[in-house]
Amino acid sequence: MKFLFPILVLLLSFTSCEDIEQTRTDQLNIDLKLIDQYVSDQNLVMKKTDDPIYYLVEQPGTSEHPQLQHTVTVKYKGYFLDGTEFDSGNEVDIELYNTIEGWQIALPLIGIGGIMKVIIPSEFAYAGNEIEGRKNAVLAFDIELINFK
After folding, report:
1. Counting beta carbons within 10 angstroms of the beta carbon of residue 83, is it exposed (0 to 12), middle (13 to 18) or buried (19 or more)?
2. For position 38, which CATH number holds?
3. Per the count of CB atoms within 10 A, which of 14, 95, 105, 113 is most buried?
4. Which range marks the domain in which residue 35 is found?
5. Long-range CB contacts (< 8 A, 24+ apart) of 124-131?
6. DSSP-assigned letters across all residues of 73-123
7. Secondary element (H or E) of residue 130
């Protein structure tokens, strides 16, 4: 009998993990549909990483690309898919490893002087957390990589 309780707890924990994973998958599918609709409506031709982060390199920049350990200097505008701007910065220094996962994946795709548009599913942005009162929001960014060190 004393072995039954730990087994029950273990089984319940697997069920919880499955539920969480299912919820993440459901949200990602919702996000991807929203992104596909936005890309279509805006007549954008975007590539996507395996993660999937959507991106459009407008200017590739130099052959030198930042890595996770670099501090990047960027000019950016962040907005929701309805066009509402939630953040922007001009020549802001940010440690790439301290940014949202979508930036960590996207920024190394361009070099110094590069300009890109990035659309990030909520899981790779702020996940279930709210930003400007919106939970599970897909985020879009226009980013210019000015420099990195």
Report:
1. exposed
2. 3.10.50.40
3. 105
4. 4-148
5. 124/51, 124/53, 124/100, 125/100, 125/101, 126/100, 131/86
6. EEEEEEEETTS-EEEEEEEEEEEGGGS-HHHHHHGGGS-TT-EEEEEE-GG
7. strand 130-131
Tell which residue, 127, 113, 124, has the closest CA to residue 49: 124
The continuous run of DSSP H or E covering 39 comes out as helix 4-41
Q: What is the rounded CA–CA span in Å between residue 72 and residue 18?
A: 37
Q: What is the pLDDT of residues 88-139, one digit of tens each?
A: 999 999 999 999 999 999 999 999 999 999 999 999 999 778 888 999 999 9
pLDDT tens digits, residue range 48-95? 999 999 999 999 999 999 999 999 999 999 999 999 999 999 999 999
How many domains does the chain contain in total? 1
